[in-house]
Write a structure and sequence with these properties.
Rossmann fold, about 350 residues, 7-stranded mixed sheet, alpha/beta, about 30% strand, single chain
Length: about 350
C-alpha cells in the first residue's frame, strides 16, 4: 500500500495549492483510496470508483458514494495509478471521452508505478500538461481540450480496459486482474494436480477470473456447487462470464469479499486456492495463513483442501496446527502443491 499512501499525500499537497475551485460540481475519483486529500472535497460532491473490496469498504465507511459512471456531470476526474499500466490508460481514456470541454483531469502516480511514462502518455493524447512532483510521485493535471485530443488512441486505450476474451487462455479478463494476460504458474500447477473425483460443494478462495474453478468443473462432474470468493470485483465479473457454461448445471455463487474481514461458508466438501502472499509489493505470509485457517474452518470433517504456494513459504506447520493433515506435496517451478485433509476441529 506504500504507493497508494504516497499518491494520496501528493494529491493532498497538490489540492492545497490548487486554484481550480470546483466545489459546486461533482468530482469522480477512480481507484479511490482513503487519505488526507479527501478534506478538500464536500462529501456530497465526491463520488468514488474502487473495485478492490477493502478500499471500497473504507470509502463507504467514510460516507462517500460509489460512482456509477463517468459522465458529463463531473467537473473533475482524479485517477489513482495502479501497477496495471493498461488499466490506468483505459481509465484516462474513459474520462477524456466522457466529460465536457474544460473538465479537469488529475492523475496521481508514484514514480515506482511509472509516473514518467504516464506523463508522456497524457501529453500524447491531451497536449500539454502540468506536473507537480512530491512524495516520490507526480501529480499530472490538465483540462480536456478537444483540439488536442487524440481520439483514435483514446478509443484504443478504452477498449483495452474492457473485459475481453483472451484467445491464449480461453478466459475473459482485463487489466486490473491478477495475471490477466496469462495463467499464473502456481495456478497451472494446482490445476494439473487437482484430482478428478471432487464432489459435492466447494469453494475457490481468491478465485481471480475463475481459472481454477473452470478446471475443477471440467475435471470433476461430481461437483454440485461451487462458490467463488474474490476481493477484486473486476475479476469476479470476469469469472461470471468464464463459468457461464455451468450456471444451469451447477449451483454457482460469486462473493465479492475481503477474506481478512468476512467469511461464512461452512460444511464444504473441498476448497481450492492459490492464496495471495503480498500486500502491495511487500511479503505478507499472514495473508496465506489467514486463507488456510478459513479453508480448514469451512471444511466438514474429512473435507479436502488443495492449494499452491511459493516453495519457500512455511505453511506446512500452519496446516497441522489448524486441524489439517498434509497428504501430498508436489514441487515444481518454484511452487509447491499441497493436498490436505481436515482431520480435527483444531481451527
Amino acid at each position: 500500500m506504500k504507493e497508494q499512501e504516497q499518491q494520496a499525500e501528493a494529491l493532498d499537497y497538490f489540492l492545497s495549492g490548487s486554484d481550480d475551485c470546483l466545489q459546486n460540481r461533482k468530482t469522480g475519483i477512480l481507484r479511490a483510496v482513503p487519505g488526507p486529500y479527501l478534506k478538500h472535497f464536500k462529501q456530497e460532491q465526491l463520488l468514488y470508483s474502487q473495485s478492490y473490496k477493502p478500499l471500497a469498504d473504507e470509502m463507504s465507511r467514510q460516507g462517500y458514494r460509489p460512482l456509477e459512471a463517468i459522465d458529463s456531470q463531473l467537473g473533475r476526474v482524479v485517477i489513482f495509478a495502479t501497477k496495471h499500466r493498461e488499466e490506468v490508460l483505459s481509465q484516462l481514456a474513459d474520462a477524456l471521452l466522457a466529460v465536457e470541454e474544460g473538465t479537469s483531469i488529475v492523475l496521481t502516480a508514484a514514480n515506482d508505478l511509472g509516473a514518467q511514462s504516464l506523463q508522456r502518455r497524457c501529453e500524447e493524447v491531451a497536449g500539454g500538461v502540468d506536473v507537480l512532483s512530491k512524495h516520490k510521485c507526480r501529480v499530472i493535471y490538465f483540462k480536456r481540450r478537444s483540439m488536442h485530443l487524440n481520439v483514435e488512441l483514446l478509443e484504443r486505450w478504452a477498449e483495452t480496459g474492457k473485459l475481453q476474451l483472451r484467445s491464449d487462455t480461453g478466459l475473459y479478463s482485463c487489466p486490473g486482474i491478477f495475471s490477466w494476460k496469462r495463467i499464473d504458474v502456481g495456478s497451472r500447477l494446482l490445476a494439473e494436480q487437482l484430482p478428478k473425483d471432487l464432489a459435492g460443494y466447494g469453494a475457490d478462495l481468491g478465485a481471480g477470473a475463475g481459472y481454477l474453478s473452470r478446471e475443477a468443473l471440467l475435471g470433476s462432474p461430481g461437483i454440485l456447487g461451487l462458490t467463488l470468493v474474490e476481493v477484486e470485483q473486476k475479476a469476479l465479473k470476469a469469472a461470471q462470464l468464464n463459468l457461464a457454461t455451468w450456471k444451469d448445471r451447477v449451483h454457482l455463487g460469486f462473493q465479492w469479499r475481503d477474506l481478512t474481514q468476512d467469511f461464512d461458508l461452512n460444511e464444504l466438501d473441498f476448497v481450492i486456492m492459490n492464496p495471495p502472499f503480498h500486500e502491495g509489493r511487500g511479503l505478507d505470509v499472514d495473508l496465506g495463513r489467514r486463507f488456510i485457517w478459513l479453508a480448514l474452518r469451512a471444511l466438514k470433517m474429512g473435507g479436502r483442501l488443495f492449494m499452491v504456494a511459493n516453495r519457500h513459504l512455511p505453511y506446512e506447520t500452519e496446516l497441522e496446527s489448524v486441524g489439517g493433515r498434509l497428504d501430498h506435496v508436489v514441487f515444481a517451478e518454484g511452487f509447491k502443491f499441497m493436498a490436505v485433509t481436515k482431520i480435527s476441529g483444531g481451527c
